[in-house]
Amino acid sequence: MNVLLLLPIIIPMLTGILTLFFRYALHTQRLVSLMGTVALLVASIALVFDVRRNGIQAAQMGGWPAPYGIPLVADLFGAVMVLLAGIVGMAVAAYALVSIDRQREQFGYHPLYHFLLMGVCGAFLTGDLFNLYVWFEVMLMASFVLMALGGDRGQMEGAIKYVALNLVSSAMFLSALGLLYGMAGTLNMADLAQKFSVNPPSQSPGLVTAVAMLFMVAFGIKAAVFPLFFWLPASYHTPPAAVSALFAGLLTKVGVYALIRVFTLIFLQDTGYTHSLLLAVAALTMVSGVVGAAAQNEFRRVLSFLIISHIGYMIMGLGLFTPLALAGAVFYTAHHIIAKTNLFLVSGVVERLGGTPELKKLGGLYRAHPILALLFLVPSMSLVGIPPLSGFFAKLSLVRAGLETQQYVLVAIALGVSILTLFSMLKLWAEAFWKPGMLSEVDTLPFGLNVRAWLYPIAFLAGLTVLIGLGAGPLFRFALQAGEQLMNPSIYIQAVMGGGP
Amino acid sequence: MEIILAFVIGGLFAAGIYMLLRRSLLKLLIGLSLMSHGTNLLIFTVARLTRGRAPVISMNESVLEPPFADPIPQALILTAIVISFGVTAFALALAFRAYRSVGTDDLDQMQTTDA
C-alpha cells in the first residue's frame, strides 16, 4: 500500500487533534497548526511526484480487494488538487496567525481548519462515491462551524443560507447515490465506470441520464454554477478573510472536482446531452457571475461574484470534453485556486486598513501601501488573463479547445467575460487603491506594524502566480497529461481494479 | 410493498420541499430532515426489499444464494442517519443563535447579506 495516499488525510487529522489538546496554549497551537500545513504541503508534493513517475496510484483500505473495499486513488488531477489544498492551506494558515482574532482562535479556529483540510483532501483522493459523500460531509461540517464562528449577525444570516442549500445538495447527492446503487450494485467509481462503459445498463439508459442530472445538480450547488449559486454571494463575504479565503479557494472547487470526476469517468453514455448541458451551464455561469460582480460595491462581494464567473470556465473545459479542454480546466482550476485565495487575503488587509469593505469609503491604498497594491495587481490581472501571468495560459488553452470543437459562441462569451472581469478588477483598483483617500490616519494605528506579516502569504501566492505564468510550458504539458488521463477512464479503471478492464 | 414505499418517499420529499419553501427558520429545518428521511428510505427501497433472508452463507454452501437482503444499503443508511443527526443538531443550534442575533425567525427578514 502506498502510504503517500494516506498522508494528505492523516496529517490534517492528526494536526487537528493535536491543536485540540493545545486549546489553552494558543502559541503552541498556532505553531502546531502551521507545522501541520507545512507537513501537508510536503506530503502533497511527494504525492504529485510519485503519481507523475509511477502513474495512477491506488490503495485498497483494509486490504479488501477492489470492488468491495474503499480505495484511495490519486491520478494526476487528484494529486494536483491535493497539492493546491496544501499550498493554499499553508498560505491561509500563515495569514490566520496574524489576522484571526483571539476570540475565534479560542473557539477552535485551528482544529476546524485542519478538519476542513482533511475533508477536502479526502474528497480529492477517494475512489468510492459513498466515501466521497462522507468526505463532503466532513468538509461541510467543519465549514459550517467556521462560517458561523464568531456569531456576527451577518455571519449568522450567511451561515443559514450556506447550511440550508448545502444540506439540500447533500440530500440530492445521497438520493442519486441510492439510485445508482440500485442500478449498478456498486459505488466504487472504477467499478461503476467499468459497468457503465463495457456493459451499459440496457434496460433504461434514460434512468442513468436522470441520475447523472441529479449528480449535476447536487455538485452544481456545491460548485456554485448557474442557476444554483445564490448561496455563495450571500455568505462568502461574511466571515473573516482567513476563513473566506480558504472557502473561496478550495470549497467550490471540490464541487468542480466532483463534477469533472463523475462526468469524465462514469456518466459517458449520453455525452451529447449531458456535456452540451454543461456547456450551456458554463456560459450562463460565466455571464451571470461577471454581471453580478459589476453591480456590487463591496470589495469581497465583487470577488465572490467573480468566483462564480470563473467556475464557468472550469465547467466549460469539462463540457468541451477534449484532452486539451480538460487540460485547460485542470490548469484553470490550479491557477484560479491560487489567485482567488490571494485576492481574498488581500481583501482582508484592505478591509482592515480601510476599516470598511465598502468601495466608496475606501481609497488611497496605493499611496499608503504600494507593495500591497502591487500584490493585488498580480492575482487580479492573472484572473483577467493578462500575459504572462498564469490566467492567460489557462484561458488560451480553453479558447483553443473551444475553437477546435467549433464552439464559437462559447469562445466569444468566454472572451467577453474576460473583458468584463477586467472592468470589475479595474473598479476595485480605482476605488480602493487609486482614488485619493484618508488612509494616512489609519496607517498610524498600532496595527500598522503588523501589516508586513500579513503580506508574506500574499507575496508567496502572488509569486506562485507569476511562476506558473513563467513556467507555463512544462506545467501545461503536465496538465495535458492530466487531461489525457481524464479522457481515458480505462487507465483509472485498471489502476483501481487491477488486471485488464 | 415497493409501491407503497415509493409513495411514502415521494410524500416525504414533497412535504420536505413544501416546508423548505415556508418562511420560518424552524420549518426550513423540519423540511430538511424530512428530505433526509426520504433519502434514507429511498436507498433502502432501491436495493430491493427482501424479507427473511439474512445475507449469511449456510453451513453446507460456499456462496450466497441470490434472494438475500443486501447489507450494503443498510450500512449506507446507517452512516447517512448518523451524519444527518449531527448536521441537524448543528443546524438547530445555528438556527437558535441566528434567531437570537437577528431577533426573528422569518427568513424574509434575513436579507442583509444578500446580493
Description of the molecule:
The complex is a heterodimer of chains A (501) and B (115). With 501 residues, chain A is mainly alpha-helical. Chain A is 79% helix and 2% strand. Chain A has a two-stranded antiparallel ribbon with strand order 1-2. The model of chain A is unreliable at 443-447 (pLDDT under 50). In chain B, helix 1 (2-20) runs antiparallel to helix 2 (25-46) and helix 2 runs antiparallel to helix 3. At the A-B interface, helix 6, helix 7, helix 10 and helix 13 of A face helix 2 and helix 3 of B.
List keywords for this structure.
heterodimer; A: 501 residues; mainly alpha; two-stranded antiparallel ribbon; 22 helices; 2 strands; 2% strand; globular; B: 115 residues; 3 helices; 63% helix; elongated
- The number of helical runs of chain B is 3
What is the overall shape of chain A? Answer: globular
Described by strand count, sense and barrel closure, the largest sheet of chain A is: 2 strands, antiparallel
Proportion of β residues of chain B? Answer: under 5%
The average pLDDT of chain B is: 88
Low-confidence stretches of chain A: 443-447
Contiguous uncertain segments of 5+ residues of chain B = none
Question: What is the 3D form of chain B?
Answer: elongated
Mean pLDDT of chain A: 88
SS element count, helices of chain A:
22
Order of adjacent strands in the largest pleated sheet of chain A: 1-2
Class by helix and strand content of chain B?
mainly alpha
Helix share bin of chain B: 55-70%
Give helix and strand order of chain A, one letter per element, not per position.
Answer: HHEEHHHHHHHHHHHHHHHHHHHH
Instruction: Give the end-to-end Cα distance of chain A, rounded to a whole number of Å.
Output: 21 Å
C-alpha termini separation of chain B: 47 Å
